[in-house]
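batch job 7 of whatever, protein = Hexosyltransferase
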Amino acid sequence: MRTRKQRCEESRFCQLGCRRRRWKLETAVLLTTAILCLLLLLRIDIQNKKSQNTTDKPKFKPEPQTSPDLFLRSANKCERNSSASNIKGFSTLPKHIQDFLFYRHCRHFPMLLNIPGKCGGPENSSDVFLLLAIKSSPPNYERREVLRKTWASERLQSGVWIRTVFISGTTGDRFEKKRLNKLLQLENRKYQDILQWDFQDSFFNLTLKQVLFLEWMERFCPNVHFLLNGDDDIFANTDNMVQYLKGLYDNDGSKHLFIGHFIENMDPVREQDSKYYVPVQVYESDKYPPYCSGGGFLLSRFTSRTIYNMSHSITLLPIDDVYMGMCLEKAGLKPSSHMGVKPLGLNIPSVKLDPYSPCYYREVLLVHRFLPHQIFIMWNEIHRQDLVCGKKALSEQNDTNM
């Protein structure tokens, strides 16, 4: 028989064994729980990242990025109209005016760079609220880079989408032209925001550039709500533009809208030494129709389409903003003025005040003639959280100048 001592030792041994088994079981449960919690956290993190990606990216279904589009690439080379030399006084005109008259009839050029899926395809283009169409010559790389980082950045603004295209022709001869075309190719490969046609990019071809873009828009982005037409040297407060356009009463882009810096009763410039010289051989009338001066203007989808349709029967004029006014006049529509559009800059009340104070620019829509570094600085300044404006800011400026 076992002694009392043996029985106690056996009992103690059993208790130790039970404790060990319980400890192992508890350890296994804790490890299992920890692993399950870790897996759950990883799953939540993955879902959050997917959600962020879905929010940050457009819900478009882009068309294949064929570049250039086969249809647009097939444009035949436009032949010179030699009969233009029979126009009275032709021989007295400057060469660039003669060239314009020789090729004035040309409206179709091969497309070198295209982004057919920019608006998600024609059927999804209504997802784009504001399309920024920026005229830019090939060498203006620095301007385009700054705009992409500032007011022309593609983004979801106040719940609506902003999309951007730069419209360009070609410049330079032989090797320089080839290099600049390569520059635009590289940019488009990275950003998918260049439209380029094979025509000479010059001041007198700005209207041609405009008409080519409107044709492109009608095909690839027909249902965009609104459009900003602008140069690459403007400062555009696109935040304010979205706010203004969203606040329009009963107009989602399906009705007439054309706003900018309104001009009327303007005479054509007849002095040959002027950049804006337009002789009677190009434009006979002694008055331009009402129009909005260049730099930039906002228009609706309805008005953009109307201008494009009118342009088919209106001879090209080298002054692009006047040409838009001609198309509007033929359609029985009028441009309008907006106090937020300042093509000639701002009227600062005192020479003692900083003309580039962000307080003057945070409420505007558009100001013309900005250098790239000025655009970059101003965009960041007007978005400062600690920006103080009003009487206090003016007082601080005056104190600094004393």
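notes: The CA atoms of residues 93 and 277 lie 10 Å apart.
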